[in-house]
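During the second year of the project, the team shifted from modelling isolated chains to modelling whole assemblies. The rationale, set out in the original proposal, was that interfaces cannot be judged from single-chain predictions alone. As a representative example for this report, we include one of the complexes processed in the last quarter. Its constituent sequences, exactly as entered into the pipeline, are reproduced here:
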Amino acid sequence: MNQFSLPRRDFLYGLGSSVGSLALTSLLQAEEAGLKPRKGHLPARAKRCIFLMMEGGPSHIDTFDPKPELAKRHLQVFNRQGERESAMSSGKRYFVQSPFEFVKAGQSGADITTEWSHLREMVDDMCFFRGAQVESVNHPTACYHVNTGNRFGGDPALGSWVTYGLGSPNQNLPGFVVLPRNSYPQGGGSNWSNGFLPADFQGTPLRPEGSPILDLTPPRGVTRKRQRANLDLLAKLNAKHQESRAETNALEARMASYELAYRMQAEVPGILDLEGETERTREMYGIGKQHTDAFGRKCLLARRLVESGVRFVQAYAGNWDSHDYIERAHGSLIRSVDQPIAALLKDFKQRDMLKDTLVFFCGEFGRTPDNGMRGGKSYGRDHNAKAMAMWFAGGGTRGGATVGATDELGGEAVECVHHIRDVHVTLLHLLGLDDNRLTYHHAGRFKQLSQFGGEVIEELLG
Amino acid sequence: MTHPILRVPWGLVPVLLLGAFQVCAADDPAPGEVLFALHVREIIAEKCIACHSQGEGKKLKGGLEMTSRELLLKGGDSGVVLIPGNAAESLFHIATTWEDEDYEMPPKEADRLSSEQQDQIRDWINAGAPWLDARRIRELRDRFAEGEVVETSGGLGEDWTNRRYEPEKLWAYRPLEVEKVPEGIHPVDWFVDRRLEKAGLQPAPIAAPGELVRRMTFGLTGLPPAPGEIRRFKEEFGKDPIAAVRAYAGRLMASPHYGEQFGRHWLDVARYADSAGFANDYTRPNAWRYRDYVVRSFNNDKPYDQFVREQIAGDEIDESDTENLVATGFLRMGPWEQTGMSVFRVTRQQWLDDVTDSVGQTFLAHALQCARCHDHKFDPIPTRDYYRMLSVFSTTQFADREAPFMGEENRTGFAQADHWASEKVAHYQRQRKGLDERIRASRKEEKGEAKTGDNGLDPGDEASLARMSKNISRHQWEFDRTKPIAVAVYDGNTIERRNVSSRIMMPGNPWGKGVMEKDSILTGGDVYSRGAPVRPGPLSAAVTLGEMDPSKFPDGRGKRRLALAEWIVDKKNPLAARVMVNRVWSWHFGRGIAGNPSNFGGGGSLPTHPELLDYLAAWFMGQGWSVKKLNELIVSSAAYRRSSRHPDSALLNAKDLRRELYAVGLPRRLTAEELRDAMLAVSGELNRQVGGIPSRPDINREVAFQPRQIMGGTASVYEPDPLPRQRNRRSLYAEKTRGLRDPFLETFNQPGPDQSCELRETSMVAPQALTLFNAEEVHERALAFAARLLRETGSDRAALGRAFTLALGRPASAGEIAACLVHWKAAVEEEEGRIYEPLSFPEKIKRTVMAEKTGRPYEFWEHLPAYEAYVPDLQRRDVDARTRGLAQVCLVIFNLNEFAYLD
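Output from the structure prediction step:
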């Protein structure tokens, strides 16, 4: 599709000896293939990925990482100072215990709060990771970091890199689909942007309300028959123009893109229509129940999309930014995602798809064991870049494992500590991609998701 | 041609040298020693040591250390890696070839050894793998090394300081080499044709006047040519083609739309936006004055050196002058915010890093950020240079400064903009008052050590209070839009700010409060690790290789930025003029002579026509840095005027597959803005007003009403301007909010304003077809176009003929008219009898978002004052079936390849 890549080809050719000719060929092939499926660099454990993005920063301390020490210090006061502290984290602070009760679940005895009454049953298929860290405590920069590897936005998202590397099985659908909430996250659409990669690899948001894909349908009054007639006239007039311009491939490709759009109009609504699922399935995902309906729909849609041949789906839930009233705020959020996520894992398992479907859950950062003075004292938690809630399921990850650890208060990861870039490298690795070889030459430099390279976190692999 | 030897391909020279010394006397070193000193040691140091050495906080990879011959011989986890004399069985060699899938080293694609480097390792092993000490290495390198050592301000280590560069990759730092062009020959064609002749390739003939007139009009103004202009151009072209082109270029550049088109190119590089991005995405209410400054500068053909000085140091030149103050907005165009969640030192450093890098990219075509943490990997830019450049800005501070409006600034629509903002504020205040009263009545008293979390409020009440207060302060900042304020800078001490949520005022005494920042290297780019002190200074390699006179930049309270600006536009600076002529060239041809307009370093593409680039750079300075004269020179060349169709495409592909010889014109798709502006121009709806506060066009309403999170709540929705003439302005003037992109423009590859864009990309994806075929805004343009055609003509055939002339700049063929007539007729039949309900526009909307403190959704109403007086564009119900039917033909015309592509 990207027929106008000629100038870019030149950039690459112009590199001459600074890159091997083999590497050059593979770069060109990846770009010119667009979304056509292709092999990665390594044997893939996962064929597709669903990224459950818990926007706002869910608390690890109140979900999967119990800290009994906090109960002992509950409401103890201390001061934190220093030039590196922001207004948020300085001044008089209180330790806050978790209002939730932890249990050991499954054969593996994984730690989880009782609020997760459905997900508790799935812990033996999940791999909890307590060692991840990011660099920023601001929502948009941390979201950009988790989504794109670059704190400042503008770089390609994880899903863009994956589809750039692997293409996508269904050519009539986008390879990277995003299921955002009604309200877009801080930082907006840059969280799923293709950055400097070709537009084929852009995340396509399927909006929860209104037209799922913008302009998927024509304005009122324009029938499908009228559209077909318009397309036919367009093809006829274009054909004459093309006659004397056979060398310009872009013109033909552009006409083909209109036909693809026309087919998408027919195909997409069917995939989005959840009515075709059985009542039992819909119930399993919590569709129709007030708390779980919104995210239940996203999870079921995510399954339908990957089944239809979409490579990468990202679903948003939140907002987990509970500076106050964590019991109420986190409690209600957990209830809204618990059943849908458990259903998604169960559903994949029943379909024997969990083995090669990678499910990844995290927020942009975790939360602090203590809280400041926001409007008096309240049970809440501030932002914490040094520890976070994260787990993986399926796709070749180590089910039933808990990897890494945070300190006794949950303030900082202390065991198996890894920067988010290593998480990215590991996700790519599971999908059969080598971060060091998944590069794109842009503005005079080879760029990669991890920015400067990272390592696979072997402990997470099954 | 003062450096003929430098044109010898890199790689040949060492071979020659090796050959040479073999016949020399007996005390000469063995070949293996020379290989080690010249190549192998450097390969190991650059590509292996990082992982294969011990160090604090470092993991040794594969159990292999490569810091000495002994350790290499010892091997690692994979066993023996080096067998002196036997490369074929040495894993060290095998791994570098990437032939064994299990051993591919270095593992990064970008670091992979070239085949030449692989051979050097192989030959060195076969020669016994000798290892030398530092003294011997230096001795051999002095005798045999090729490549150039570049004198810089000095690297962090001696190795870097003494490293050698492939001479051809240093082209950008060398003084211009200006060839003499024979009298009477167009200089562009002199250089371009020479290459073509050498390649044995005849260029395509000159394009037909109808193609040229579109190419030139879009190229210089971003708009389609008017039928009258096409006629006139064709007549003049018939008499004297070159004179016609020159005269038309002159007319186009005299129109204010020229500055809009070239300004748009510049604003891509400068990353212009009307908001600050990140968590709050606050408005930048006065950024539009910088946008208009850029447009004005191109229209007035401001000498480029002056344009550079003003943007970098306008306030230091004359801070009482509005033009100068507004120009410094360039330094503040990147995304930036300071909130209570962030550390001031860190955000201050982020700006210093950002401005250093963006000045480097924009004016010097060097992405300097690579040198922030370490000496540059490819280019002769030491970290010291980075911090010398950065310290030019360490006394630069933000202020939204008083700057009286000038006569040429457009102040249309001020009252209406203020009215809208005050309506928004009033609605929020009314809502807040009601909520406050309700909360007061129901709030329970809080006691005890900690708040229990339930004080009797509805879910969302507190969130709503926060949201309303936040939006009130956001809209209040918008009142600054119509005030004589410039987004500008001043020199002074750094004053710590914890939270910036409104205009930044000038302090009474810039050197009073706050501290003067220390200028030093930050080790590893870490703001908390001060290294060696530095003082302001330029890129040292450009001074030494460019043979510039040494210059001393002031420090302390001196005019640091003015010194930098003067250094950049010094006629002996090898970079500035090359960078700008290359940009202008790329704006005409869609590609630079040097392929990366913002990266002239070793990572960027080498120039395809270096002599032409140098000639143009010198010519440009000689013509007083006049961009208009440069444009005229370029468009009058045969290279620019060529047809995009070559008579012998097989030969063309054989000789110039990459299309870098300019044997044919390169067709291009219209940019996002050109596409929208062209539809408005053709439909007759375009308001050609130049400049002024941002316009708010209709954008996809679902996106406009999309709730958008900001810190502390949800931002107000996007509301279009009430009147068609306010909305239907050129896309350049559409308000650019970082967190809310117009999906139409984004879909057609308008770059995001967070990073500088050196050149537009053109992708082709299905959403573009969906947009252009289905979007309400495109259907509205088609309807207005149809109405215009019927208004201006008397028959069906005449209407269709005029449609082709206006949209495509050519008459329709009989076959086209016939096909369109049939189509029109069928569409009218469908439309007859259809009733279209009047559109209703919401004056308030209900929205549902999640409350942070409850984790539950809540609903609220938002008032949309812009819709109270909203006048829609022409609607289907306003016209008859005949017009609606014709609109279907018009829609197809807007979707034609011929409409979207220029030959």
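Chain A touches chain B through 130 residues (CB under 8 Å). Confidence is low (pLDDT under 50) at residues 1-25 of chain A.
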